[in-house]
Write a structure and sequence with these properties.
Chain lengths: 338, 532
Amino acid sequence: MNVMTRSKATDQKADGGERSRSADVRTALLERYGGVLVLVGLILLFGILKPDAFLTYNNIVGILANSAILGILAAGLLAPLAAGVFDISIGGAMTLAIVAVTYLFQVTGGDMPVPVAILIVLLGAVALGMINAALVVRQGVDPFIATIGTGSVMVGMSQLLANGTTITDGIPKAFTDFGRAQVDKISIAVFILAGLCLFAWYILDYTPFGRNLYATGASREATRLAGIRTGRVITIAFICSALGAAIAGIVFAGRLGTGPPGIGAGFLIGAYSAAFLGSTIIRPGRFNVPGLIVALLIIGVGINGLQLVGLPFWVVETFQGAALLAAVLIARRRPAVI
Amino acid sequence: MSPDGSRLGNSGPGGTPTGAASGLVAERLSKSFYGNRVLTRLDLAIPAGSVHALLGHNGSGKSTFIKILAGYYLPDEDSGSIHVNGAAVQPGNPESSRERGITFVHQTLGLVPSLSVLENLRLGKVWHTNTFQKISWRRERASARASLEAFGLTTNPDTPVGRLSVLEQTEIAVVRALSEGDNISVLVLDEPTAALTDHEVEKLFTTLVRVKENGVAILYVTHRLEEIGRIADQVTVLRDGHVVGTGPTSDFPTSKLVRLIIGDSDAPDHTDADTVQTVEEAVAAEQRRKAERPLLRISGLTAGELDGADLEGWSGEVLGAVGLLGSGIIDVARALTGRTPIVSGSVEIGGKEVSPGNYASMVDSGFGAVVGLRSDRVLMGLTVKENLTLGVLPEFVHHGFLNRRAEKQSAQELVERYQIRCPSVEAETAALSGGNQQKVAITKVLSTKPRVLLLEEPCHGVDARGRQEIREMLRAAAADGTLVLLVDSDLDEVVGLCSRVIVFRDGKPVAAFERDLDRGRLLDASYGTVSA
């Protein structure tokens, strides 16, 4: 997807150009690691403003825990974004995952083994991914519109299952033990996120499939003409984002111990903010994992810091929205002057 | 510069234009892209009320010049000027070009097929409205009819433009261009007759004579040499961005024009022993073919404008396929790459049937293609390295991990071997010049070692040196046993490169040339005319 990418042609004259090498290197470094500088700046800022509250182990661990679920969602989202398609259904998918996994427990009176329940939800996510792909690839529906549709359908289905309430009965202790597990107070969600990030990084940077994702995003037709099965690439991409949403929902429900409907919508914007902001960092112009991690931390630290300083509930969405706008503005490159 | 059109060349007078100079005066215009000169000190003058033909190969700089006139491109700094009736046009400013009275009919005509003639004529202009800001359709229709009648046209203003014939559409485009403003002084026509029959060309010329008699200076760009004598007073030939000949049409018979366009320096290329076969070689090739099975066989292919087309190609040959717009030639490439659905017929590679609809399987069967827009040939948002290795990435995977160093090395070797000019293999492909992007596209496909390589206009937008390099790439591929199938509208390229050429007309092949391969015969077969 070339939303972000327009050539910095002026910097890369084929004949070598007149600009000095060092100037190019300096601006390139700044562009790539600017986000890291922002993160460091925020940490310093809040460290100075509220040292007792901000720079404590508990607080840091809390930031990580809060960002982790969003991170899992965003990590799955990297696949379709790299392939040049929007998946708006991840909000609805996460909602349905939360409701479905708790519903499975409630309806079996807590007898269903936790791994089985999780597996069923994950399989459902795979099915969702394939439905999204079928709409986009085979039927040629615009991905944005198709996934708004499927997302809404899932929200509806979760409302059906939840029957207007938050599911609280029958949640086995094993499930909440899993969701609230910690190592040195670091939530299990963080470890799951770390594992997913490593896996995503490997796929994107070290496998042909990852390259095919980026290629499909750069130009689906050119990639098709290179002999790559772009339909398959997009299908797998949609499955990835659906699985990401499902895992995020399962962990969230496990941590909470209940299945409130309608949670996913709030995470949708955050996931996109993190993904887009991440695409301007470390590997600018491309959706990438290290950039995503830095972006998640920027958003997490930013929100936490602002809350500690005293800003109330509205700071969350505001900050996420601002981060998304900042990302898009930064990424807008100077158009090439011919 | 004087109205009788005395010679201007690269070493022209270079003086300031006088206030009395009428028509269009372009002086010393140069244009470069990324250090690559595509236009060098062009001087061109068209007196009011005359027609000036502009000829040149693909890539000679014609389109670049027109885009400079239109304000779309900025000429190189401190390079030259454009004046219309003595008034300067501000370079790089479309508004300025329009204000000075330069108007255009581009190759694509710029009409909206779903809108009516009337609506197209008024595109971008102010409508007649009544007091309530409601469009006064009656007045608009009358005004449109009047404009059309001024050119002897009787088209109904309410007809959707898409339903009109190509000739009528061209005429509408001309009328629209001329009603742009009150002071139209220069009309630029880019290949207006490309898709017209001889009879229709006559009709268009009648219209143009009328325009000329109104005092408009007409710049007429065309590939069709036989038209020059009929409509143009002056002619200028461009080659590789330089003016190589200019003057009254009467001084330039067709043979001289052809020599100027192709250029004597290219002649050795065309008589290169590798491509132009002697009679003996051609006979030997034919006998070999009778013994071997064709590598590519297309049978009864109906797709798009193709109507039951048959075609065979053998390993190791450079096979050309040419034809005019409407002959179905475009659908040869489109059908083979799954862009135009195949209604009936079959395609076989190496004796096995393949289905272009599932293009990935075509590639698996040894097919490779460089077709379509520039953005379909290379992935602009990826680096040069990533483009080059796209089709063969699994080769660099060891123990489940992509060996990035090996990949980069391989890309660097390719860049060096094929002389692809780029700052590094990690550069974004969009930053390369058009010619180098083409080379990346071709190299990318060649690295998958295809058995059949289909190329559409591979040298489009490429400079002379790049063309030479691409030609060598293709010859080497054929020597390796690849069947190179070249679909190109540039007959000079085709003649220079191909050992055999098939001409398409009316949806199927109508002629094949091998020993008797020359441009004139190809043109005749394309048009269906018989030369004396």
